[in-house]
Amino acid sequence: MGFLKKIISNLLKPPRTEAFPFAPPQTPASYRGKVVVTAEKCVGCSTCARVCVSSAIDLVEEKDGIALTIWHSKCTFCGLCAYYCPTDAMTVTNEWDLSHRNEQKFAIADTIVAKYQVCVDCGEALMVPHGGVISSSIIGHERLNQKDAPRCNKCRRVQKARQIAGVRI
Known about the structure:
Layout lengths: L1 H11 L22 E3 L9 H5 L5 E5 L3 E7 L8 H5 L5 E3 L16 E7 L1 E2 L6 E2 L9 H4 L13 H13 L4
Antiparallel strand pairs: 1-4, 2-3, 3-5, 6-7
């Protein structure tokens, strides 16, 4: 008779699972899902591609910047790219439903172009330094004065020589 009471009590309880096909799924705010890149913040330093465990991030050098492509079909949603991004250009959303047909696996990608910064003195395109250390003079997006503006190596040496010689810039 105890099992009959258990069956009746289970029938009166609300369901514990979600009604997914009939209602949108409830995703927790802390759930790691699709990675989104803000092109204005990205400097193309390649840190994200180096820490990606599944090689889902490709970087290709172009004439006006570095094209960054995220292949969502390869992404494992680990969040390392967003964690190690020095400019906070990469963020992890909680959008997890990226299901697609197998023939569309090469179409499930996002591409942005990180524009090169330009030297304020000569106009030469600046490459982001590779090797783990990224200087704040190249990353800095808010310039307070002309002294902190991005410069190429040649113009930086000229500026330093003027400072040593006492010439006001």
